[in-house]
Design goal:
single chain; mainly beta; 4-stranded antiparallel β-sheet; 1 helix; 37 strands; 1% helix; 45% strand; globular
Length: 468
């Protein structure tokens, strides 16, 4: 191997094990150029929400991305076409929280505290006062004090910074908590002093500031945890304990942790999702799962449950027909909490109907499970039974005001190795790599740009004409 004065690398000789690095196993008897490799980009994700068969996520530049099923416009890209790779939604860079709903709609909060919604609106679940489907994000009201959101099939809930709870959408089993059978297409206040909420299929749970646990809505499978199977149309306290820490709601079950590190579950257990070693029964009140006291957080899917321990290792139980357990198998039922993998790098997790997403400590995103609508975002429709890395997508590059200017821009030769020529008067040029990183920025390049210092590869060119 030899490095040339310009930093190029050439290699020759035996290549039976690929030691020349040129992508083949063919011997070379003359110096052969080896391309500069593309570096692995650092992780870029900070938030993720998965439900039903689609995924929402926020990158570290606060842009919003979506992929998967889009039959009701729930991705927010203005279409109803499914996407199997992350697709940027608009160009705003101020998204803070996202929530994907099992009812094919989406909620989000921006950094300025405003509330946004889009997708299916058949029961007024978007909260905009109508039942009109929205294929792009629309602001809900004018309030800018929203702090958290959650959604069920056809109803929604959110907490404001003052601790007040607000609900809207369908009302079939008391899920709005307003004490009546009245549905509403705009947010209505339900009590104060709320810290956290989690919404199931037709019920809600929440933890108040005093760490008490509450639930309301449909209770026919014990999901409310009240000790019976009755519906509740107002928030009802579960027991008298004041040490509840986190709670997650699945389709018809709940899983929760206490401040002492213990784990509890209740509700329907048809798929082993309660994690107590049994199936096909109903538990109508919180029951401790095992004796461990090192649980820290929990998450629930339709028929699955996930939980972290203090060592940041993820465990799972429930149905695994599509690889939801993430352990390399497609076990139909897993009735106890088992290791997903031995990595301690998972930082946050969210669970959909049959698929799961996790953001690692370095900002990388991995996903696994069912993938019929492309909800894993890996460019395929193939299920995955192990965590699979999802590459950081290239952002939409803005700055050219008129499409006619883009069409008029001519750059040659393409591809080029030394000099790029511009057929028009150029004010400035920026070169981006495939990850959206700016590598070269030049003012007034005299209609030419020297690119001989760039490694071989594909790049994006953003040029500003002299006329703006």
């Amino acid at each position: 191997g030899a490095i040339l004065t310009d930093g190029s690398l050439v290699m020759w000789g035996r290549n039976n094990s690929g030691q020349l690095g040129n992508g083949t196993n063919v011997n070379k008897n003359v110096p052969t150029a080896i391309n500069c490799p593309t570096p692995i980009a650092a992780g870029c994700w900070i938030k993720i929400s998965v439900k039903s068969n689609f995924t929402l996520a926020i990158k570290n530049d606060r842009t919003l991305w979506a992929w998967g099923n889009n039959m009701r416009g729930q991705l927010g890209d203005g279409t109803t076409v499914n996407k199997n790779t992350p697709t940027q939604i608009g160009t705003d860079k101020d998204w803070a929280i996202v929530n994907a709903s099992s009812g094919n709609y989406s909620l989000a909060i921006k950094t300025n505290g405003t509330l946004w919604a889009w997708g299916n609106n058949s029961d007024g679940q978007l909260g905009d006062g109508t039942t009109e489907q929205r294929n792009t994000p629309i602001q809900i009201g004018n309030d800018n004090h929203w702090s958290s959101i959650s959604s069920g099939y056809y109803f929604s809930a959110a907490i404001k910074t003052d601790g007040t709870l607000w609900t809207w959408g369908s009302e079939t089993s008391g899920e709005l908590g307003n004490g009546s059978a009245a549905a509403t297409t705009t947010p209505q206040q339900i009590g104060t002093n709320w810290k956290y909420i989690s919404v199931g299929q037709y019920f809600m749970t929440g933890i108040k500031n005093d760490n008490t646990l509450w639930a309301w809505g449909k209770g026919t499978t014990g999901q409310l945890g009240t000790g019976n199977l009755a519906d509740k149309d107002i928030p009802t306290q579960i027991g008298s304990d004041t040490n509840w820490s986190t709670i997650a709601t699945g389709n018809e079950h709940c899983i929760a942790t206490k401040t002492n590190g213990t784990l509890y579950s209740w509700g329907r257990n048809n798929g082993g999702q309660l994690g107590d070693g049994t199936t096909n029964k109903i538990i109508s009140g919180p029951e401790q799962v095992g004796s461990a006291t090192d649980w820290t957080n929990c998450y629930a899917g339709e028929y699955t449950s996930f939980a972290f321990k203090t060592d940041n290792i993820l465990y799972a139980c429930g149905g695994g027909d599509y690889g939801e357990m993430g352990n390399g198998t497609n076990t139909s039922i897993n009735t106890t909490f088992s290791l997903v993998n031995s990595s301690s790098t998972m930082q946050t997790v969210d669970v959909g109907r049959f698929h799961v997403g996790a953001i690692l400590t370095d900002g990388s995103l991995v996903m696994w499970g069912y993938n019929l609508a492309g909800q894993l975002g890996d460019g395929t429709l193939v299920d995955k039974n192990v965590p699979t890395a999802i590459a950081c997508p290239t952002p939409i590059i803005t700055g050219i005001a008129e499409k006619t200017q883009v069409n008029a821009l001519s750059i040659y030769p393409n591809p080029a190795s030394d000099i790029l020529n511009f057929a028009h008067s150029i004010k400035s040029v920026i070169i981006y790599n495939a990850s959206g990183q700016a590598l070269k920025s030049v003012q007034t390049p005299n209609n030419q740009l020297n690119i001989s210092d760039l490694c071989a590869g594909a790049y994006y060119v953003k040029a500003i004409l002299q006329n703006g």
